[in-house]
Amino acid sequence: MLSYRHSFHAGNYADVLKHLIQVAVLNYLRRKDKPFIYMDTHAAAGMYSLVSDEAGKNSEYQGGIAALEALLSRTDSTLLVDYWKAVRACREEHGDNTYPGSPWLAQHLMRDQDRALMFELHPQDLGSLEQLTYRDRRILVRGEDSFTGLIAALPPKIRRGLVLIDPPYEVKTDYDRVVNLISAAHRRFATATYALWYPVVDRARIQRLEQRLVRAGIANIQLFELGICPDSDVHGMTASGMILVNPPYTLKPDLDSLLPGLTSRLADANGFAGQGHWRSEILVGEQG
């Protein structure tokens, strides 16, 4: 359970979609002066070096963040521009070869009145996360299992927020546990936006996850997916997606405009030109 290290995958095409959506939701929450809380169930190290031995093993970032500059020169997507601004801010502070994880992005976008709760179990990543955040009184880091720790922390005093749920799914029961987690958390904190990341390695498993969420009795659920090649038993992860509960009303039209070009660029960068695919779907409407 503790063997997964995100440093091997930092900045890949899955990170691009996940962090682009994270930035979009946080910027939406920032539109109002009222505070928000950010909760991260699997925070990892918080920031990564793309020249580390881990990142260099497969250089997955080459098919992700490194492939975006050509697209940025001809985009009018606010989502993509805002995400790139956050990445640049990280590099201006920590060096050109760094990539921000979700904790760094949240810390960067939080205001004085906002708060964060982050969970991480891996000892080395927990140490890095604590080093990144220890001077920031807005952020609480806990080295415990978020599947129980998150529920114990709900409901928070702040009634607006984003809960990012992105386990590595090394333990296959996590596909069921995340649905149970969202259901239990939603009962305690129904006004939050929940963002669940998932990898497509076994399409049938993702279909079951979707079906369970649809039957969970929760309204306003949307799904966004970016794939670099067709589903396969050979290529490992061929796509990844985000399922959001209570997404900003602006998110779907913005992603509908961005995903075709973004998918094409990232599929090409990963050696699968013309084979990319994407999804943007309302799984459950606002009225349930």
Query: Can you say what the CATH homologous superfamily is?
Result: Vaccinia Virus protein VP39
From the coordinates shown, what is the CATH architecture? 3-Layer(aba) Sandwich
- What is the CATH topology assignment? Rossmann fold
User: Can you identify the CATH class?
Assistant: Alpha Beta
Q: What is the radius of gyration computed over CA atoms, rounded to a whole number of angstroms?
A: 18 Å
The number of helical elements comes to 10
How many separate structural domains? 1
What coarse outline follows from CA principal-axis ratios? globular
Strand order of the largest sheet: 5-4-1-6-7-9-8-10
Q: Extract low-pLDDT stretches.
A: none
Q: Would you list the SSEs in sequence order as H and E?
A: HEEHHHEHEHEHEHEHEEHE
Biggest sheet: strands, sense, closure? 8 strands, mixed
| Fraction of residues in β-strands | 15-25%
Separation of termini? 35 Å
Amount of helix: 40-55%
Structural class, by secondary structure, is: alpha/beta
Number of E-type strands: 10
Mean pLDDT: 95
